[in-house]
């Protein structure tokens, strides 16, 4: 019995932590919203943390050339901008978007984001077109709808790293299994004792 109680407590803790992560993942209003084109964009960061740069209107993104993104805080400090390996999709105001870059800002300040050669990005609406599975390739090509960059935008918003999201999903599964499994074993054991006791 003490082991089952411990399992329930651990399961509840994992569920609480995962719920907190999911709440933080909920996308809020962007701190910067611009058209998708090469150039320099300015906005302010008041809260340090992890930030994503999403391409609004994109179901999938392919890079055909050397696209670059650089970021400077308060005109003096350069921050590394990385490409998002997972390219998480989300929606904002009914439009799909794909996280394409991300960065970590550990100090607040006035930010300058510079995008170069974004015209080489091939962007479409269908998420299936991002699949590299060979048996889906003909379907992908039929569903793919290239979008003119004039219809696209970029949003900068506070986010959560993809690995942290994955761990939250795993914590939810493990926590739920521990709680449900422990309760089932507890009630099942009580029922057996009651039955044989009678």
Describe this structure in words.
This protein has helices at residues 2-25, 137-143, 162-197, and strands at residues 32-35, 39-45, 49-56, 60-63, 68-73, 77-79, 81-83, 89-92, 95-105, 109-116, 121-124, 153-158. With 198 residues, the chain is α+β, with helices and mostly antiparallel strands. It has a domain at 28-160: Jelly Rolls (Sandwich). Strands 1, 3, 7, 8, 9 and 12 form a 6-stranded antiparallel sheet that branches. It has a 4-stranded antiparallel sheet with strand order 2-10-5-6, with no helix packed on it. A hairpin with a 3-residue loop joins strand 5 (68-73) and strand 6. Helix 1 packs antiparallel against helix 3 (162-197). The longest helix has 36 residues, at 162-197. It is elongated. 21% of the residues are buried.
Summarize the structure.
By secondary structure, the chain is an alpha+beta fold. The chain is 34% helix and 34% strand. The protein has a domain at 28-160: Jelly Rolls, CATH 2.60.120.
